[in-house]
Amino acid sequence: MSKIVHIEIPSTDFGKSKEFYSKVFGWKVDMTPGMDYATWTPPDKGVGGGFTKSDKPATEGVGLYIGVDDIEAKLTEIEAGGGKIVTPKTKISDEYGYYAEFTDSLGNKLALWSKK
């Protein structure tokens, strides 16, 4: 797989985020039931993402998720390549799968995602 599957943008106010991104980019924004999280989908059904609840906006980038088939195997490769694990494989939910966070060999923070 190894493609961009999700982009995460911090939000201090989901209503304002929904209003702005819906108006400016035409994104469909929905609250995720049972979670303090909102998802967004672009009108062309391209790569979507979410708004994660935050106390402050991101001034140093947004969350970028790379889809992989096996998170644990990819984390092993990341470490072998000089990267570091920040958050090990963690379950989001049965519906949304798993994620893990890492830094690359230069210290850039990214994340992995897998359904399994």
Question: What topology emerges from the helices and strands here?
Answer:
Elements: E1 3-11, H1 14-25, E2 28-31, E3 37-41, E4 48-53, E5 63-67, H2 71-80, E6 84-93, E7 97-103, E8 109-114
Parallel strand pairs: 1-4, 5-8
Antiparallel strand pairs: 1-5, 2-3, 3-4, 6-7, 7-8
Task: Describe the structure in your own words.
With 116 residues, the protein is of the alpha+beta class. It has two domains: 7-61, 2,3-Dihydroxybiphenyl 1,2-Dioxygenase, domain 1; 68-116, Roll (2,3-Dihydroxybiphenyl 1,2-Dioxygenase, domain 1). It has two helices and eight strands; from the N terminus they run E-H-E-E-E-E-H-E-E-E. The protein has helices at 14-25, 71-80; strands at 3-11, 28-31, 37-41, 48-53, 63-67, 84-93, 97-103, 109-114. The chain has an eight-stranded mixed beta sheet with strand order 2-3-4-1-5-8-7-6, covered by helices on one side. Strand 2 and strand 3 form a beta hairpin. The longest helix is centred in the first third of the chain and has 12 residues, at 14-25. The radius of gyration is 15 Å and the shape is globular. The model has no long low-confidence stretch (mean pLDDT 91).
Secondary structure: number of strands: 8
Bin the strand percentage: 35-45%
Helical amount among residues, as a percent range?
A: 10-25%
Give the spatial strand order of the biggest sheet.
2-3-4-1-5-8-7-6
Please, how many domains? 2
Oligomeric form: single chain
Concise overview:
With 116 residues, the chain is α+β, with helices and mostly antiparallel strands. The chain has helices spanning 14-25, 71-80; strands at residues 3-11, 28-31, 37-41, 48-53, 63-67, 84-93, 97-103, 109-114. 19% of the residues lie in helices and 45% in strands.
